């Protein structure tokens, strides 16, 4: 079996990736990056809940003030998101997109991987209709980062992975339901308390609605 560093936020996507790895018998070292996000308290609460449930090593929390010292507030997302207009405009980047965030996360995780002797770093990225408004969650980002890793350290075999990259949000939520993961204990909102208005909240809500409709139409139970 292998060991993985998982960039873990306590959200639905990274929790399903977490479960997949532990079900295969791998050791997962969960890593949380505190960059000044509003949802810090609830994200850490969710992360610790699943770490205990999945019986993994304890949560490693790394704090960085890079964004906090430059951008105030770090994320400002109290207006309802219009996902359809975002998808129709190829030039639109989400107002919740932080430039170079996942590049920074990958760098920190790579350093931590040396400490815990892991060769693989896992992101909870999922499949989206377009990666334009979150370009650093795309398969291209993973590929280019892995090429960069080889340039920085040719002798290293550290590799970035995204086991849920072929899954849409409804597949993620459906996986959680089928595998008895208490998805209500995940936290996927950008705000201090769940706002039900940001694009993350809307995507989770839409996933549940799609699953319910499909379930009703086929007569198949979970």
Report a brief summary of the structure.
This protein is 44% helix and 10% strand. With 222 residues, the chain is an alpha/beta fold. Strand 2, helix 2 (40-54) and strand 3 form a beta-alpha-beta unit.
Q: Mind explaining what this structure looks like?
A:
By secondary structure, the protein is α/β, with parallel strands linked by helices. It has one domain: Rossmann fold. It has helices spanning 12-23, 40-54, 66-70, 83-88, 101-116, 139-152, 169-178, 199-218, and strands spanning 3-7, 27-34, 60-63, 120-122, 159-161. Helix 7 (169-178) packs across helix 8. The chain is globular and about 50 Å long. Mean pLDDT is 86; it is low at 77-91 and 218-222.
Q: How many strands, what sense, and barrel or not for the largest sheet?
A: 5 strands, parallel
In the CATH hierarchy, the third-tier topology is known as Rossmann fold
C-alpha end-to-end distance: 30 Å
The CATH class turns out to be Alpha Beta
The value of Rg in angstroms is 17 Å
Number of strands: 5
Element order: H for helix, E for strand: EHEHEHHHEHEHH
**Approximate helicity band:** 40-55%
Mean pLDDT: 86
The total of helices stands at 8
Give the class from helix and strand content and strand pairing.
alpha/beta
Shape: globular
Strand content: 5-15%
- How are the strands ordered across the major sheet? 3-2-1-4-5
**CATH arch. level architecture:** 3-Layer(aba) Sandwich
């Amino acid at each position: 079996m292998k060991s993985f560093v998982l960039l873990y936020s306590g959200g639905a996507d990274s929790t399903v990736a977490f479960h997949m790895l532990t079900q295969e018998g791998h050791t997962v070292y969960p890593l949380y990056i505190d960059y000044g996000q509003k949802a810090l308290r609830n994200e850490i609460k969710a992360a610790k809940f699943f770490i205990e449930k999945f019986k993994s090593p304890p949560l490693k929390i790394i704090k960085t003030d890079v964004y906090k010292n430059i951008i105030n507030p770090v994320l400002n997302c109290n207006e309802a998101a219009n996902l359809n207009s975002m998808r129709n405009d190829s030039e639109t980047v989400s107002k919740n997109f932080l430039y170079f965030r996942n590049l920074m996360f990958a760098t920190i995780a790579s350093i931590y991987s040396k400490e815990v002797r892991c060769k693989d770093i896992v992101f909870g990225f999922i499949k989206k209709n377009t990666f334009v408004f979150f370009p650093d969650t795309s398969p291209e980002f993973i590929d280019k980062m892995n090429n960069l890793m080889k340039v920085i350290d040719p002798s290293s075999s550290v590799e970035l992975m995204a086991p849920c990259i072929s899954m849409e949000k409804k597949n993620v939520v459906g996986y959680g339901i089928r595998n008895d993961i208490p998805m209500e204990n995940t936290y996927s909102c950008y705000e201090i308390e769940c706002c039900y208005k940001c694009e993350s909240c809307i995507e989770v809500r839409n996933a549940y609605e799609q699953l319910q409709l499909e379930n009703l139409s086929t007569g198949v139970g979970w």
